[in-house]
Write a structure and sequence with these properties.
Structural class of chain B: mainly alpha
Radius of gyration of chain A: 18 Å
Order of helices and strands of chain A: EEEHEEEEHEHHHEHEHEEHH
Distance between the termini of chain A: 35 Å
Shape of chain A: globular
Number of strands of chain A: 12
Bound molecules: adenosine-5'-triphosphate, magnesium ion
Structural class of chain A: alpha/beta
Oligomer: heterodimer
Helix content of chain A: 25-40%
Strand content of chain A: 25-35%
Strand order of the largest sheet of chain B: 1-2
Largest interface: A-B, 30 and 21 residues
Strand content of chain B: under 5%
């Protein structure tokens, strides 16, 4: 279970997250929608502590991320421990961010700290349908294939949770489907996922909960049928009327 | 519009079209002019007795020259290894968030790039004048081991020290250029995977930085090779010093300078050869 309580984050004087409370159940899929600049990426990045929060806290399976609680004080964890926590949280970037000097299988195996890393990496690549491409370098793969390698890389550490930041926005339209298919399979297999996306069709079909974020606040949340078909808030309605044309 | 439609109308549909390459008359003129100059220069090299090719041949493989060549190679190799090790430490220091590390590295690079190598070498050679003994012990406190400075720092040691310190400053900037050329998102991806810091540096950052580092590093290595000739001021028997010794004896300055020159040219060619293969190794994943 993932729990965000009163999460606040500013860049300089610009308050990007204005107190976020969110609970995500184990094995559930949460889709975050919201206009550009509303703080979606920042929210995801606070969950694996790529951004430090200014106030509030994040817990994953009860474990406080990035801090140690001592009485009423939150002590920042040393980087080594934060890195260890991050290994339990997969992150898939909009721009894939594969390591260009490593092959697909090396990319996936890089963070695995086990003697059978390569076998494990190949298993993950097979799972995302890339059995044939294990020895290809990222440059030799299409965007959709690169993003699937990135997903395999995020899965290879058996994460408790996988975060997706607009995983299909950098893809040509005909490649979006293959990535969404992989994500659909993951959801079906019970992977806990938080997904920022503009793919409303995917959200409607796969999400358990849709969260609508606007200007650093959660404006409304609920099951897809509720949020997408009968939004309560004007902001949500305005946003949906733009993306649903 | 009329040009376009004419062009479209021109080719008869059935005939295969042949390509006639464009002619480049000026290339021929340029090539001819340069060939004349090169031939003239070569003719001069062969016929001018001043070059004294017999003496050149006599000394090219002469034992003392070969020994001196070895010293040059040792200085180059050791200087490069120590220099680049220094650079690999100094560059991340200069990029670090720790203000003390950052300013120490900045100052080091500033100072050692400012001081001409020859001046620095003379300083090291005269270290004994500043401190006659060096000791190992508690900072500002008592010492345990005392060594005479001139015993510790031989003239070869002084030369190597100078070259390495000088080289480290340049190497630091080369490595830094390589590091900042790597997309920040690469480190972010590594951090998101929980890869430990040192491993991020070694496995993700450095191999990618190498692509930007290598051409400048090879350039710097060639510079270092030639800079070893400056240590002649410390009377170390490297190549340039040795040919001076020989022409001081027999007065054949030009052919002996030529001996040194040709060796430097050959060594540079060997370096360029290796550079090609090393660069190819680190361009893995960038070639299709
Ligand atoms: N490192 C940073 N420094 C300063 N400002 C930042 C930084 N990162 C994000 N911001 C600002 O925070 C706000 C929210 O950014 P964020 O990337 O979270 O938005 P988003 O909802 O993901 O938008 P998009 O849909 O365009 O990706 C933006 O106004 C952005 O300019
Ligand atoms: Mg974003």
């Amino acid at each position: 279970m993932i729990e965000l309580r009163g999460v606040q984050k500013s860049f300089g004087s610009h308050e990007v997250l204005k107190g976020i409370d969110l609970t995500v159940g184990k094995g559930s899929v949460t889709v975050i929608l919201g206009p550009s600049g509303s703080g979606k990426s920042t929210l995801l990045r606070t969950i694996n502590h790529l951004e430090k929060v200014d106030r509030g806290h994040v817990r994953v399976d009860g474990e406080l991320i990035g801090y140690r609680l001592d009485g009423t004080k939150l002590h920042e964890l040393p980087e080594r421990l934060v890195l260890r926590q991050r290994a339990g949280i997969g992150f898939v970037f909009q721009t894939f961010n594969l390591f260009p000097h490593l092959t697909a299988v090396e990319n996936v195996a890089e963070a695995i700290r086990r003697p059978d890393a390569r076998e494990r990496a190949i298993t993950e690549l097979v799972r995302v349908g890339l059995a044939e491409k294990t020895d290809a370098y990222p440059r030799q793969l299409s965007g959709g294939q690169q993003q699937r390698v990135a997903i395999a890389r995020a899965l290879a550490l058996d994460p408790k949770l996988v975060l997706f930041d607009e995983p299909t926005s950098a893809l040509d339209p005909e490649l979006v489907g293959e990535v969404l298919d992989v994500m659909r399979d993951l959801a079906r297999a019970g992977t806990t996922m938080i997904v920022v996306t503009h793919e409303i069709g995917f959200a409607r079909e796969v999400a358990d909960t849709i969260v609508f974020l606007d200007d650093g606040r959660i404006v409304e949340q609920g099951p897809p049928a509720e949020v997408l078909d009968s939004p309560k808030h004007d902001r949500t309605r305005a946003f949906l009327s733009k993306v649903l044309v | 519009m009329s040009v376009l439609s004419e062009a479209r109308a021109a080719p008869p549909a059935t005939e295969p079209l042949t390509v006639v390459p464009a002619r480049h008359p000026w290339r021929w003129v340029g090539a001819a002019a340069v060939s004349v100059l090169v031939t003239q220069f070569a003719h001069g090299l062969i016929t001018n007795p001043g070059w004294d090719w017999a003496t050149f041949a006599g000394y090219f493989f002469e034992k003392s020259v070969l020994q001196a060549l070895l010293v040059t190679l040792e200085l180059t190799f050791a200087g490069a290894v120590l220099g680049f090790l220094g650079g690999i430490v100094l560059a991340p220091m200069r990029l670090s968030r720790n203000p003390v590390l950052r300013s120490v590295s900045w100052t080091y690079i500033w100072v050692f790039r400012s001081v001409p190598l020859i001046v620095q070498l003379l300083f090291w050679a005269n270290l004994g004048y500043l401190y006659d003994t060096l000791q190992v012990g508690v900072p500002f406190g008592p010492g345990f081991v005392h060594v005479g400075t001139s015993d510790l720092v031989s003239s070869f040691g002084a030369a190597l020290l100078g070259l390495a310190l000088h080289e480290a400053a340049y190497a630091a900037e080369i490595v830094r250029a390589g590091i900042i050329s790597v997309d920040q998102r690469q480190l972010e991806a590594a951090a998101a995977l929980g890869i430990p810091r040192l491993r991020q540096f070694r496995r993700i950052l450095l191999p990618q930085a190498m692509r930007a580092i290598l051409p400048s590093a090879a350039n710097e290595l060639v510079n270092l090779l030639k800079n070893t000739s400056v240590v002649y001021v410390l009377a170390i028997g490297e190549l340039f010093y040795q040919v001076q010794v020989v022409y001081g004896r027999n007065g054949r300055v030009v052919p002996l300078l030529l001996v040194a020159t040709v060796w430097y040219v050959i060594l540079t060619a060997v370096l360029s050869f290796f550079q090609h293969y090393v660069e190819r190794h680190f361009s893995r994943g960038w070639r299709r």
